[in-house]
Write a sequence for this structure.
């Protein structure tokens, strides 16, 4: 299926989710994350959920990371395609931007080369680990700046599609995608 078609289908599927089901499914995803071998690293990039877009609630993952005393890096959009990573501290101010994305106002910047694990938002993914985001390319740009061995973990409420047909050469596949029912490894 084409990325544009998948964006429409999965936007509608998300729209049909209720707040309680988003909470329940997000908790299942966070618990399933504990089963994959990603916990011996130091620097974890974690997106903050856009509630209005009914994304996976990453607050449960943040709690796990904090409980394991990991360095949590939060993204901030700085221009049309670039994210800056700020270290989450007790005093990191968070504010929604014009697209309702919660992000740090400022803080201690950490270069992408330091990131060990990236949790990726997505609309859909396929059985080969290719993902469909919102189409702006922020995570493609970020992943290209990270080390080649960075672990890429997608988070999805839904199972894998068989195949995304319009994969581009710059699209970087996931290592894992975690859903409420299954963990995919690519």
């Amino acid at each position: 299926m084409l990325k544009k078609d998948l964006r429409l289908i999965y936007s509608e599927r998300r729209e049909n989710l209720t707040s309680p089901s988003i909470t329940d499914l997000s908790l299942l995803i966070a618990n399933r994350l504990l089963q994959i071998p990603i916990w011996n690293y130091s620097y974890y990039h974690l997106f903050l959920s856009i509630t209005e877009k009914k994304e996976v609630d990453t607050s449960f993952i943040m709690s796990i990371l904090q409980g394991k005393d990991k360095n949590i890096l939060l993204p901030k959009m700085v221009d049309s395609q670039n994210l800056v990573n700020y270290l989450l501290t007790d005093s990191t101010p968070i504010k929604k931007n014009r697209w309702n994305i919660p992000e740090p106002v400022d803080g201690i910047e950490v270069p992408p080369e330091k990131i060990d694990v990236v949790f990726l938002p997505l609309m859909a993914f396929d059985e080969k680990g290719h993902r469909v985001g919102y189409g702006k390319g922020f995570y493609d740009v970020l992943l290209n700046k990270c080390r080649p061995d960075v672990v890429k973990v997608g988070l999805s409420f839904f199972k894998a599609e068989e195949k995304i047909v319009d994969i581009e050469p710059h699209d970087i596949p996931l290592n894992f995608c975690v859903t409420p029912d299954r963990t995919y490894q690519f």
In short: The mean pLDDT is 95. The CA atoms of residues 29 and 180 lie 5 Å apart.
